[in-house]
Amino acid sequence: MRLPDFILENLESILQSWEDFARTIETPGADLNRAALRDHAEQMLLAIVTDLRTAQTVQEQIEKSQGLGPVAMHQTAAETHAVTRLLAGFTIDQMVSEYRALRASVLRQWMSQVKTGTSLNIDDMTRFHEAIDQALAESIASYSRAVEASRNVFLGVLGHDLRTPLGAILLGSEILKHSQGLEARAAKVATQIHTSVTRANQIVGDLLDLTRCHMGPGIPVNKTDLDLLPVCRRVVDEVQAFHPEANVLFVAPTPVVGKFDGPRLEQVFSNIISNAVNHGNIHFPITVQLSVAEDVAVFSVHNSGEPIPEDVLPFIFNPMGRFSQHSATESGPTEGLGLGLFIASEIVTSHKGSINVTSDSKQGTTFLVKLPLTE
């Protein structure tokens, strides 16, 4: 008996095997009724039957095996199944195990027919494996997209909701700092509170920027006519004040006037300079340069010290590829989430500019940003 015919004739027993296995999965399976346990299994099996009965050339088979098969115009049963399993509390490993059990159940029952003398079509088995793999790939991709979307929504809500209490704490610390007659110890505590909540507010801002980048077209910028020289100088002074042990040299021969988003580029300057201070050798000067070359603003930061490994360089602006020369315990509270370079890269991209980094043991590490002066 051909495999598609076998599946249709034994659909109920196959579905029962699927249900029995799903029920054995710990935690979520015990709380689901029969319909939920069989969720989309019948539609997937019918789709597999349709696929097995569809003529396929050798080239089409090769393309399908390489993941280049036809793309469905609408959401498939496998994609929907993944989302419902996620909502039911199944892990991705548990969902994958369902497909493994389904594959084994169908082939085991079909092979039992062969033992009774029924002829076996090897091509059916090959195409069945392809169809299961296709459904599995669709489910995994759908599950991953749903997890990513829910994580982004969570981060966005978290960042938004934290802004209000942090703002209240920041305002309170500002009032305490400028209160007259505070004892030295109370004034010191107020200053520490203000510094910590400012840092926390920056981390929340980075979270919101990360969410904007993942859920939208990128970080929005509001460009105005602006001279970047005083903006950069102010950032250098702030970093130097926060890290008095570092020697930050600022070189800016002329004003740099153009169309820029000042607050956003202040983030870029602060993130890159702070990165050089945190990861460079503070026994050597950190050179910050700002200039104009051919209608382009050029900003660079150079530091000495251990170079960034070659295998890390391609991922230095990736939020998941953060690089640090220090361990988590050594880096201290100023390290935050490590999103600084990613945020800087996204802001530069929104300005239609470019950002690059070079690093070796002889020349040190240099971050180079180029921004067009006009639209």
Question: What's the gist of this structure?
Answer:
With about 375 residues, the chain is of the alpha+beta class. The chain contains 13 helices and seven strands.
List keywords for this structure.
single chain; 375 residues; alpha+beta; Globin-like; Heat Shock Protein 90; 13 helices; 7 strands; elongated
By CATH's scheme, which homologous superfamily of the largest domain applies? Histidine kinase N-terminal domain
What's the architecture of the largest domain in CATH terms? Answer: Orthogonal Bundle
Amino-to-carboxy terminus distance: 69 Å
β-strand number: 7
Q: Rg from C-alpha positions?
A: 29 Å
Reported for the largest beta sheet, the result is: 5 strands, mixed
- The fraction of residues assigned to DSSP E strands is 5-15%
Low-confidence stretches: 323-337
- Shape field: elongated
Overall average pLDDT:
82
| Spatial order of the strands forming the largest sheet | 2-4-5-7-6
Number of domains: 3
Fraction of residues in H or I helices: 55-70%
Report the top-level CATH class of the largest domain: Mainly Alpha
CATH topology of the largest domain: Globin-like
Structural class: alpha+beta
In sequence order, what are the helices and strands, one letter per element? HHHHHHHHHEHEEHEEHHEE
Total helices: the number is 13
